[in-house]
Amino acid sequence: MKEQVFALHVATRNNLLTYLENVTPEKLAQIPAGFHNSIWWNIAHCVATQQILCYKLSGVKPVVPEAFIETYKKGTSPDGHVPTADEIQELRALLISTQKQLEADYERGVFANFTPYTTSYGYTLTCIEDAIHFNNTHEGMHLGVVIALNYFAK
After folding, report:
1. Which of 14, 19, 39, 76 is the most buried (most CB within 10 A)?
2. CATH number at residue 39
């Protein structure tokens, strides 16, 4: 796969990190009127979804705890708690480590099997390359939501 695909993933993750590192914990947890979730949830959801799309659909054990995935997967909602400094640092570390791990695992060929999956976007993933490309689209969409949430949160 072209290195640009992973470079785009790094760029999106770096943009998400900017919000995670520069927004107050209270603002990270806020759900403005008209929205269904928070900046915090959207960023954590990106990590959880990457693990589902790339690892679980390939039959590979995710590199983040199952409880994390269950908390932030599609269909979940924020629980309203304000993240602690330690939780913010943990999510920061996951944003960086899961990007690097995905690239390394792809290069090592660990994603040999893949279960086709049609996303709610209406796009069918048939192989790991599809999943990695779509994951970039998915994270870009959530970055847009994070930008809007930051604008409307007080």
Report:
1. 39
2. 1.20.120.450
Neighbours of 107 (CB within 10 A): 10
**DSSP states of 91-135:** HHHHHHHHHHHHHHHHHHT-------EE-TTS-EE-SHHHHHHHH
Q: Token digits for 63?
A: 């590199």
Can you give the residue range of the structural domain that contains 8?
A: 3-153
DSSP 8-state code for residue 24 = -
Q: How many domains does the chain have?
A: 1
Rounded CA-CA distance 42/25 in Å is 14
Chain length of the chain = 154
Give residue-wise pLDDT tens across range 26-82: 999 999 999 999 999 999 999 999 999 999 999 999 999 999 999 999 999 999 899
Within the chain, how many helices (H) and strands (E) appear?
Answer: 6, 2
| Per-residue pLDDT reduced to its tens digit, 72-84 | 999 999 998 999 9
Q: Is 149 helix (H, G, I), strand (E, B) or coil?
A: helix
Q: What is the pLDDT of residues 88-97, one digit of tens each?
A: 999 999 999 9
- Residue in the structure block whose two tokens are 């629980």: 79
Measured torsion, CA atoms of residues 33, 151, 8, 86, in degrees rounded to the nearest 10:
-80
